[in-house]
What does this fold into?
Amino acid sequence: MNRRLKGFIIIGGAWAATNVVAGALFRRRRRRYAGTRRQFLVVHGGEELRPSAEEMTDAVASVFMGGLVLDLRPVPPPTDPLNLDVRVVMGGLEVQLPRDWRVAVEVTSNLGGVEDDRPNPPPPGDSPHLRIRGRVTLGGIELTHG
It folds into this structure.
């Protein structure tokens, strides 16, 4: 077997093992976060998710080489700020929000960005609040109103 073929076999095996490990970690975390914390993960694909109309206080959205549309419009207005922790690597995340929500974006981007399509001026001070924190690498986050 030549060296080039061995290299392809090793890289292919490592790639498959990475996907298996990522899936196993997601399943374990999903069971651990019951209650008002939600976790969303997309690896090598696309998803459009609409959380149920339950009370939600924290959420984690992880996107790796894929795309996620997260529709938060059916979520009831939070009494305390809703924290959305994001990790986007070579992918995209679109967050659809109700028009009356205030949003604070605290995201670090490396060769990526955050696009905010919300209207100016901001909604009134007593409206629900969403805090988006995290990191974007070679990808993007878009905030829209549905």
Observations:
- The mean pLDDT is 81.
- The radius of gyration is 18 Å.
- The chain has two domains: 1-32, 36-145.
- Residues 104 and 131 are 5 Å apart (CA to CA).
